[in-house]
Amino acid sequence: MAFLELDGLVKRFGDVAAVDGLSLKVAQGEFVSLLGPSGCGKTTTLQMIAGFAEPSAGTILIHGRDVASVPASKRGIGIVFQSYALFPHMTVTQNVGFGLEMRKVPRPERERRVAEALELVHLGGLGQRYPRALSGGQQQRVALARALVIRPDLLLLDEPLSNLDAKLREEMQIELRNIQQSAGVTTILVTHDQTEAMALSDRIAVMHGGRIVQVASPFEAYEFPATDFVSSFLGKTNLIPATASAGADGATVVAFGGSRIETSAAPAATGPVLLSIRPEKVRFAPPGTGYVCGKVRTGVFLGNQWLYQVASPFGDLLVVHQNTGRPEARAGDEVELAWDAEQMRLLPPERTHG
Questions:
Q1: What's the pLDDT tens digit per position in 19-74?
Q2: Three-state secondary structure along the chain?
Q3: What is the architecture, at CATH level 2, of domain 4-228?
Q4: pLDDT tens digits, residue range 200-252?
Q5: Domain boundaries 236-347, corresponding CATH code
């Protein structure tokens, strides 16, 4: 039995379905991210799980119990908001212990559990400080300690790192994952940041238009996207209209422009498809050996890599190469692009992003 099960979840606002028939199972101790753009329904889904919004249809089961009629305060859920929502007039210790005090936990036990929670988030010596004296990362840890100290069955994270600068956000991703694993608490994260979702999650549920379009591990979702929306949202990709036909020994022949590539790595398909190839899988090929000809528009140096934009008959294509100490191409260069056949992914022809 799944620890958390969402079955046919719907939330309507008038005639608009913000969440439309969403189903998801989450195992005990698992870290799952709801990933998608603004307006895809991920925050509304989190609010329904928390008990802040009532579903229009569907069920929410925690440990096999339908929590539809259970108040938010009785669901055994810890929540960390984007704003942290710390009480400015309370010390760190008072902020973390507030939930325990409301639950009338005896003072000796409350003090012990607060101390344990602060040690877990590496703030053991800062209990007497006020939020205004803390950095953004420290405030985020206080909010996390406050959510964990009540020993929740489920931890909900609503864009918890979005207010941090890029370097601190990266550091806190590692710290947050370590804390979650140490606590062993089942966790749902809402985010629009694909890097954050991939760094933290056991599985990612990619959402679009109020629905989940793919649930997979970060590696599987990135390497084997189900649709062009997943492919484009979860990192950068090149999409080329193509036609697939059956080849020898179960292989698939992919034709686009004047090129034909045979592959057994892509699922068998016939008819129109979208060929998806990640920029880091594309290389500059010797003259006469490439699949696509084009001209370099720009080459952007990013430190550890170069990002090239190449004008082609299929529109602008992206190429990412690791920095080898010198640029491999310059603006205006005529180039040919190639890639290994097994790196191609064939997607349904209907474009679902936009």
A1: 999 999 999 999 999 999 999 999 999 999 999 999 999 999 999 999 988 998 88
A2: CCCEEEEEEEEEECCEEEEEEEEEEECCCCEEEEECCCCCCHHHHHHHHHCCCCCCEEEEEECCEECCCCCHHHCCEEEECCCCCCCCCCCHHHHHHHHHHHCCCCHHHHHHHHHHHHHHCCCCCCCCCCHHHCCHHHHHHHHHHHHHCCCCCEEEEECCCCCCCHHHHHHHHHHHHHHHHHHCCEEEEEECCHHHHHHHCCEEEEEECCEEEEEECHHHHHHCCCCHHHHHHCCCCEEEEEEEEECHHHCEEEEECCEEEEECCCCCCCEEEEEEECHHHCEEECCCCCCEEEEEEEEEECCCEEEEEEEECCEEEEEEEECCCCCCCCCCCEEEEECCHHHCEEECCCCCCC
A3: 3-Layer(aba) Sandwich (3.40)
A4: 999 999 999 999 999 999 999 999 999 999 999 999 999 999 999 988 777 89
A5: 2.40.50.140
